[in-house]
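ok, trying the design again with the full structure, not the truncated one.
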């Protein structure tokens, strides 16, 4: 199904840049269409949930959700109406156990087609167990979003790829404190509460590019 969204990119290169960051990121991400079917998932998501990509892509996005049938339709309608959704759910892991997940979903247009970018923000096998991703659940963003500066977009793109502060500093010839400052500024402008939450927001809103 990926061919539907991987047509030649629009003039601003958003689709190409979006998909490049999506594929390379070490943060678990999925693209879901209006029919609630997975269009694509990245390697980080496969590594976390351990299902074969062939079993996920094309399947209903809620098929792995445990005991939430009465809430799925309501949540999906909210996402369609507002283009954003935050929540918690229990996912059946490929190993047969249950995974407690926090997520952020943002609707966006990709080459003329609406898709939802779903980012796994937090994952634990037990509610009080060790964090598998390292990001606490977010709150919905507050305030008006503002465009990022060129340097902030550059730093956030590296964050989206899963790089830590020290690595970003080395690659961009910046000090770690400067990198942290750019990340804080970007989070403040977008209303993000964690780095993974920031990635979900900037990717969905097209605020970073090559």
């Amino acid at each position: 199904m990926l061919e539907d969204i991987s047509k030649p990119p629009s003039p601003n290169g958003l689709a190409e840049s979006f998909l490049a960051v999506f594929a390379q990121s070490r943060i678990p991400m999925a693209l879901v269409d209006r029919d609630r079917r997975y269009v694509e998932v990245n390697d980080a998501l496969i590594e976390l949930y351990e299902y074969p990509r062939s079993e996920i892509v094309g399947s209903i996005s809620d098929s792995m959700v445990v005991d939430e049938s009465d809430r799925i339709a309501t949540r999906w309608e909210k996402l369609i109406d507002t283009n954003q959704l935050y929540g918690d759910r229990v996912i059946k892991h490929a190993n047969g156990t249950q995974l407690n997940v926090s997520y952020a979903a943002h609707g966006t247009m990709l080459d003329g087609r609406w898709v939802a970018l779903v980012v796994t923000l937090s994952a634990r096998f037990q509610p009080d167990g060790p964090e598998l991703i390292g990001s606490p659940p977010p709150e919905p963003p507050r305030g008006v979003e503002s465009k990022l500066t060129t340097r902030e977009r550059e730093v956030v793109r590296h964050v989206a790829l899963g790089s830590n502060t020290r690595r970003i500093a080395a690659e961009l010839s910046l000090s770690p404190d400067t990198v942290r400052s750019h990340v804080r500024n970007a989070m403040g402008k977008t209303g993000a509460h964690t780095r993974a939450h920031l990635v979900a927001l900037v990717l969905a809103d097209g605020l970073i590019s090559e």
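Keeping the full-length input from now on. Residues 176-190 form the longest helix (15 residues).
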